């Protein structure tokens, strides 16, 4: 039987400090009521400690996962890490992470796909496993969004939070693991959701700092429209292509950007709410962290053979869906 890449363990970490909607009421002109009803978010976690970055959250998530599975960091072959808030412009955060967890036999790299960072990383790593060249790949989704969030801008600061999640990918020859994927990019959407300065287009200057161009800039309404349509369409398309129905899909694992986008996707797929994983109320939008944090939070409910669809939409624009068969029973 052909080799498929299966998720065989999951990990997650969010920082201790909680920023509630009521805290935000004191910082910008907003209300708990508005945030809850327009987004579904109640609180988010923020990495406050000086000198701590995305790699530190990722390290906690990965070390917790390896410990749970009884695997040494020395056994990891590759680290593929999705983020838009890497510790540095370079080197890659996968590099820093390998050092912090003692993964001395691994190589790795970062994937920049905004909110689709984890999904694109998972697809990439899955192909490495299928090739037969690698046996244990750690796939991470992590973002310290508080590092690029303007806490005087109510359009963005209410949405984002910090967090990390990860999975271990291993070969499976029983027909379990990643079955199919549809991934998309449309660069013409880049100016609706992006960080304007800091890269080679607008290198950092006193002026870029003064103009707040190192923060996330989002035209929320426009992004919302594209997100609703594209995330729903791609999720439905992968169901159709694989002969799945609302009855045979066990779980939808959606990007957690806005509860209304999640609801629209579930509705398009005809899914009952009980099959849709939602933890946006606790974490907000952790960008690359949302999908693996969902897998981590709901792991105990999954059973071997469950049909699962992972879907995202994010800056770039980037979006897509992965269909997988869950590979293990809850312990
Ligand atoms: O994860 C990557 C992809 N990102 C997304 O998927 C995010 C997509 N966008 C969204 O989730 C939503 O667009 C937001 C949550 C960002 C905004 O919600 P919205 O329903 O699209 O609000 P809006 O921008 O259309 O604004 C509606 C009203 C406006 O007032 P007027 O012009 O109707 O008087 C805004 O000024 O709500 C006002 N408003 C707020 N009021 C209280 C905007 N933000 C706030 C706020 N608190 N934080």
Sheet of most strands: 5 strands, mixed
- CATH class division of the largest domain: Alpha Beta
On the 0 to 100 scale, the average pLDDT is 97
* Helical coverage, percent range: 25-40%
Intertermini distance = 27 Å
Low-confidence stretches: none
CATH topology of the largest domain: Peroxisomal Thiolase, Chain A, domain 1
How many individual β-strands? 13
How many domain regions?
A: 2
Q: What percent strand?
A: 15-25%
Broad structural category: alpha/beta
Morphology call: globular
The order of strands across the largest sheet is 1-7-6-4-5
How many helices? The count is: 11
Topology of this structure?
Blueprint: E1 4-13, E2 18-20, H1 21-25, H2 32-39, E3 43-45, H3 54-69, E4 78-82, H4 93-101, E5 107-111, H5 117-130, E6 137-144, H6 154-157, E7 162-172, E8 177-185, E9 193-194, H7 206-210, E10 217-218, H8 220-241, E11 251-254, H9 259-269, H10 280-283, H11 290-298, E12 307-314, E13 318-325
Parallel strand pairs: 4-5, 4-6, 11-12
Antiparallel strand pairs: 1-7, 2-3, 6-7, 8-13, 9-10, 12-13
Spell out the key features of this protein.
single chain, 331 residues, alpha/beta, Peroxisomal Thiolase, Chain A, domain 1, 2 domains, five-stranded mixed beta sheet, four-stranded mixed beta sheet, 32% helix, globular, binds oxa(dethia)-CoA
Explain what this protein looks like in three dimensions.
With 331 residues, the protein is an alpha/beta fold. It folds into 2 domains: 4-177, Thiolase/Chalcone synthase (Peroxisomal Thiolase, Chain A, domain 1), CATH 3.40.47.10; 179-325, Peroxisomal Thiolase, Chain A, domain 1 (3-Layer(aba) Sandwich), CATH 3.40.47. It is built from 11 helices and 13 strands. The strands form 4 sheets. The chain has a 5-stranded mixed beta sheet, sandwiched between helices. Strands 8-13-12-11 form a 4-stranded mixed beta sheet, sandwiched between helices. Strands 2-3 form a two-stranded antiparallel ribbon. α4 (93-101) links the parallel β4 (78-82) and β5. α3 packs across α4 (93-101). It is globular and about 60 Å long. Residues 30, 34, 38-39, 115, 154-155, 158-159, 193, 220-221, 223-224, 227, 257-258, 261, 285, 313-315 line the site of oxa(dethia)-CoA (UT7).
């Amino acid at each position: 039987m052909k080799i498929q890449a299966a998720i065989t363990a999951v990990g997650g970490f969010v920082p201790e400090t909680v920023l509630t909607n009521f805290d935000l009421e004191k910082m910008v002109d907003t209300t708990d009521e508005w945030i809850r009803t327009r987004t579904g978010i109640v609180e988010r976690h923020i990495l406050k400690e000086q000198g701590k970055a995305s790699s530190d959250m990722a390290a906690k998530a990965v070390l917790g996962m390896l410990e749970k599975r009884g695997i040494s960091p020395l056994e990891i072959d590759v680290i593929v890490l999705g983020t838009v808030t890497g510790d540095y412009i370079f080197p890659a955060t996968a590099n820093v992470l390998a050092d912090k967890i003692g993964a001395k036999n691994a190589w790795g790299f970062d994937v920049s796909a905004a909110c689709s960072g984890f999904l694109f990383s998972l697809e990439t790593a899955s192909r490495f496993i299928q090739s037969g060249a690698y046996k244990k790949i750690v796939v991470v989704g992590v973002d310290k969004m508080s590092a690029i969030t303007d806490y005087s801008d109510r359009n963005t600061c209410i949405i984002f939070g910090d967090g990390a999640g990860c999975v271990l990918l291993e070969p499976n020859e029983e027909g379990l693991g990643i079955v199919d994927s549809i991934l998309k990019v449309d660069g013409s959407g880049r100016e609706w959701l992006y960080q304007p300065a800091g890269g080679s287009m607008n290198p950092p200057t006193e002026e870029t700092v003064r103009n707040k161009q190192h923060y996330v800039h989002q035209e929320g309404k426009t992004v919302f429209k594209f997100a609703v349509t594209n995330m729903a369409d791609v999720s439905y398309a992968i169901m159709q292509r694989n002969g799945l129905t609302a009855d045979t899909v066990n779980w939808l694992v959606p990007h957690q950007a806005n509860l209304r986008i999640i609801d629209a996707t579930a509705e398009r797929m005809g899914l009952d709410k009980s099959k849709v994983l939602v933890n946006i109320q606790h974490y907000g939008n952790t960008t690359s962290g949302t999908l693996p944090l969902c897998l981590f939070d709901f792991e105990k409910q999954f059973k071997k053979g469950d049909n699962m669809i992972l879907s995202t939409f994010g800056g770039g624009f980037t979006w897509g869906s992965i269909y997988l068969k869950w590979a293990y029973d809850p312990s």
